[in-house]
Each structure stands twice: as structure tokens, then as C-alpha cells.
TrEMBL record:
The lineage of its organism: Eukaryota, Metazoa, Chordata, Craniata, Vertebrata. The keyword Glycoprotein applies. It is found in: Cell membrane. This is G-protein coupled receptors family 1 profile domain-containing protein. Residues 52-316 form the G-protein coupled receptors family 1 profile domain.
Amino acid sequence: VVCINNTAINMQQLLYCVPGSNASCVMEQFSFLTSFALYLLFVFAMLVTILGNAVVIVSICHFKQLHNPTNVLILSLALADLLVGVIVMPIRAITAIYGCWFYGDTFCQIHASFDFFELFLIIASIFHLICIAVDRHQAICNPLHYSRKITITVAVMMLCVSWALAAVYSFGILYSKANEAGLEDLMASITCLGACLVYSNPVWRILGSTICIFFPCTVMVCIYTHIFILAKQHVRKIGEKNNCSHDRGKGGFVKKSECKAAKTLSIVLGVFIFCWMPLFAVSIIDPLIGYSTSAFLLEVLTWLAYFNSACNPIIYALFYPSFKKCFHCIITLKIFSPNSSTMNLSVK
């Protein structure tokens, strides 16, 4: 939460988070049209995030044809994105528009916990993407043994480990306060009334960014690169330029649908990197320059990262024909028709 407005205006025009106090933070001041536009943008982001991911969850739970290990992983990823829309975005929207914290010290501590809950969801999402990458690697690079090695039970176990590791890391930092070590003087010097600030020292910023984004994303990019190199080799072997088909060579066979799924999920990874990488990069640079990064820039990068949670359902709808059919059934209320759960979602 940033409570200092750097816009050059007269002191008489300043609005304070805590009126009558010289130690108060200065409230952000936007025109009516700007505030209205921000409200619309934030509400739109929340609605798309919540409704889109809810539809993904309902689709996978309801339609039996979607009950497979890959979609179990996608369902859990959609749950993490849904929680971002329900819990993280609303509070962040209010503080972004006003630049003040109006809810007291007790709720500030809870809000700080939500910051780490946000970190928890980010790490969980990263682990989910790693699990999905491993699943696609096995499906394409080892197709003969995929159904035996990657079952729904195995997928659920992978998810449990992902959520557990994310919780241990994020809430371990919260309760140990290791991220605040060495920042006591800085926090005391820049804290004002009406602020709810969360700081992390350079060591934890670098460590967290490496663990949360840089190393995992490098690993996943390498996995998908290997997948597409192998898929291209399969295509070359059977003399097709644009389609994945049967290959009876040493790799067994690769289904066209598996290749499409890998491409779609690699797009999910690419969008995740595009949305989150700038924020993590700035989070490393910020403590090195005395936490002087522009408040506006931080807010823009934070919401760019949040928009990632709204993007995934759109990607599924555009690139997954089966999900597109599910979304149509839900929107047209055909999901309430008898035996809708067993309907054929295959697209000829």
C-alpha cells in the first residue's frame, strides 16, 4: 500500500488518511473519471477471474470426459486463481484507489498475512505449472507408459505436495519475520499513519524471486522445449509438416490431442511469465535502490500479475475445443439437462 502522493499540489489541497495528524500519509487524489475508470477496470478483472475460473472448476468437476490427470492439475490451478479474485483483488483495489489503509492495526496485520497468502498462491501456481509440465512431458515423451505412471491418484498427490510446500515457504516467512531482518530503522523512518506496509530485505527478495519464478520458469521452459523438439522429430519421421500423428518408432505414438494440449499449456506458462516476471524483477531491484521505485509502477506491475489469473480461462476457451464446448453448455444452461455429465465433448 503506497500512501504518499508525489503529485505536485498545494498543501491546502492535500487530503490525509488520518485528518488532523501531521504524521498521516497523504491520500491518493484522482479525478472522478479516473476513479470511475479504475473501479470499472478492477471490477472487470475480478469478475472475469472469479467467473472464468469458476466455470473451469465446474466444467472439470461435472463433465466426466474431463476427468483425467491433466485436468485435475488444471482444476487446482483454477482454484488458486479463483482465490486471487475472491480474496486478494478486492482489498488491493481499495488500497490502490485511495492509497490509504482505513481498517486499523489489527486488520493491517491480517492484510500483511494476505500479502503472504498472495505469495502462497503464487508459489502454489508455479508448482502447479511444474506438475503440468511434467505431465505433458510424460504424455508426449513416454506415451506408452503415461497412463500407468500418471494417474489421477498421482496427480492428486502432486497437488498435495505443491500446496504443502507453498504453505511451508510463504507462512514460514510470515511467522519467522526473516524478511524484515535489518529493515527496522527503514520501516520506522518511512511509516506514516494510515499506512499498511510490508517490506522484505534484499536477501529474501532475491531468494524469493529465484525460488518463486526464475528457477522454476527456467526448468519449465527447458521441459517444454524438449517436448516440442521431440514432437517435431515425430512429425519429421512420419513425413507430416503440421500435424502430430501416429509414430511406431522408439517413442511409441503421440496423439494429436496431446500435442495440442502441450501447446496450449505452454501458452499458459508463457502468459504467466509475461505477467509475473516484471514484478519479481522490480522486487529484486527495489531494495537495492532504497525502496524508491515509483508507487504507480509497482501498482501497475502488481495488477498485471493479477490479470494472469483472469487469462487462463480465456486461454482454455480459445485453444481447448472441449473446454469451449463445456463453457457453451454452462452459459446456455444445458448443463442442467439429464445426463449432461456424460455428453461427448470431442470436436470432430
